What we know:
Elements: H1 2-19, E1 28-32, H2 38-46, E2 51-54, H3 57-63, E3 73-76, H4 85-91, E4 94-98, H5 101-109, E5 118-125, E6 135-136, H6 140-147, E7 153-159, H7 172-185, E8 189-191, H8 198-203, E9 208-211, H9 213-216
Parallel strand pairs: 1-2, 1-9, 2-3, 3-4, 4-5, 5-6, 5-7, 7-8
Helix pairs in contact: 4-5
Amino acid sequence: MLRDRIEKVEARIRAAASRAGRRREEIALVAVTKTFPAAAIADAYALGLRDFGENYVQEFEAKAPVLPLPNARFHLIGHLQANKSNRAAELFDVIQTVDSVRLARRLNDAPTRRAQPLEVLIEVKLSGESAKSGAELEHVAALAGALAAFPNLRLTGLMTMPPWSDEPENSRPFFRRLRALAASLRLPQLSMGMSHDFEVAIEEGATLVRVGTALFGSREP
Length: 221
């Protein structure tokens, strides 16, 4: 079942990349495993996946001890509270949701055994939804400049989550805005697109797509 779902997602990624004149190798599939057990991550790893996304520090902390997977990369894709930044910096390879200088400073100063700077992305809030987190558009350039001063962080790109819609095309304007912003800041990574709209995201330049339901099925309520 999981093998079949991975193959279907891969086919969708390749088709979208082809339409956009891109190479498949430019796009990383981040398997979103929140609420799924560590065994699901291990199964996906055995089938060739290497990037995994989790939303909650505490949830992944419980899974991590049984996941010594060589070359796997774990991304935090959910909102990060500043008081959990130390543990997040230790557990994750990539933090995709930096949205303030305060949080960036906490991550930079976190005591870790990490040999290399922690890779981070700025989460950008492009919608007016009050429930959404992320840096406001007008603050992103200043935040990117501030991040450059932190030696233990490596800013590589931007991430966003457009308003939910059953129609994937409704996400396209938000993806285009993020791509333009990343280009203006000369940042190569674009994390955008989920199970329902990642093909549109790829057409608009996504380098990281965050896919959960299309791989693992619906989550328990």
